[in-house]
Amino acid sequence: MGLFTKSSSNRTSSKPSISERSASLASSNSSLQSPTLGFGKRSSQPTSSGPPPFSPTTTAPSHRPQIPMPKAPDPLVDPAAYLRSIGSVRARCSVLLEKAVDNELNHFDVDMSKFDDSVAFVVSIIKRDFAPDYATIPPHGRWQHFNVGGKDRVSHLLQSWPSSVDTSERTRRLLDLFLVSVLLDAGAGTTWSYKSKENGKIYRRSEGLAVASLEMFKTGMFSSDPDQPFRVDSDGLKRLTVESMGKGLQVTAQNPIAGLDGRANLLIRLSKALENRQYFGDDSRPGNIIDYLISHPTTQISSVPIVPLPTLWHVLMDGLGPIWPASRTIVDGVSLGDAWPLSSMPREPNSAEWETIVPFHKLTQWLCYSLMQPMSVLMHIHFAGAELMTGLPEYRNGGLFIDTGVLTLKPEPMERGLARFASEADRNGQKCMEVVPMFEASDDVVVEWRAVTVGFLDMLLAKVNTELGLSGEEALSLPQMLEAGSWKGGREIAEVTRPNTKEPPIMIISDGTVF
In terms of pTM, does the model score above 0.90? Predict the structure, then answer.
């Protein structure tokens, strides 16, 4: 990634001010061109002899015109708008990457000699699962979770609809499903499981939540129209209750799920957000964003529709704004969402408040990755500027770097985190089989961990491609590396390191709206 090609050895002692550096980074983002290879690249195309293969890697051809990206807001003029933009995430996290490489973090010791161990572990997993057909790796997104166990549930769903359902409506339906499923995808806890009504198999964690949300969707649980069960709309969501969600997720005293109330209330708040007709149409459906995007003046129609990534980002940040808690970081009266102050951000005597804030917008990025897939696969939409998105700053990706020895929590935060774990375990009456430090999502430790994870994932991508011998059009994209390597690797190494709980090396107390 361009912002990380300059090594720390090239830095001079005469640095510009923080404001100037941030403004420069914002300006550099504005000139980024659409990638040569877009989202979900190098897949076979449908032919005239039959329907397209419904694979999450199926997209339009890669030869597309490059278009300039809209400029990111100037942080010196409108810092709140800048910190809510996708371009700010990598720019702000790059400051922490430099400090990490120099082992200057506040809460973690950094051993860059162990980074090659992270690379080797990720490469081994990718080779195990995909060699030599690396082009078949799908991008990171919710689609893959639906297909747990090798069953192509998304294709089966599409094939179950009559031919009278056109491509646009098929895309709307998948967008309806994917958005609700992503919003339900907060950590479920170690004890919850879901038994599929279709095959009787047991699924857990993200895959269990995906199968559960799909089966609820197919029953019409999120639709207000009994004749149109395969949809999500505002009136349908308004009817949800904690009890109905618990029943749909098979929650019992013996099968508890973390944050049931929060999940139900998030979808109920979504019902209000969907009343915004500008984005979600007269029938208040998530899937109607496809119509908004296609008709948007920034969209170009050539051999395929080309939508600038910032246009989709704007829809998700502004259109879904009402569903997020208001008690988040605020600048100039604007709630920033998943953005947090961080003590290790360099600050000068007269610097502004915003200069200590690091934005992540993890759930919005996860939505972007997930919603782009059905639009790319079914309607061959190309998202220009998809490279603006970052690796997801969450506990699987971040845990990889702790469990491979790159990051080690310093003694003081370790002691504080272990004390919090013990306190929470006592309060909940839990047995401590495997003890790890625990912090709130807003804790400085977690914010620093997430910030450096974003930069490390960019470094990891470059090194993984080198080790795999992939370059040019053959090189893995960041979403492919997340899917086949870092996220999967973070989960697998956690299972080996902590086999009883399979939890990450740092546990995070969250309300389900960050992770």
Answer: no
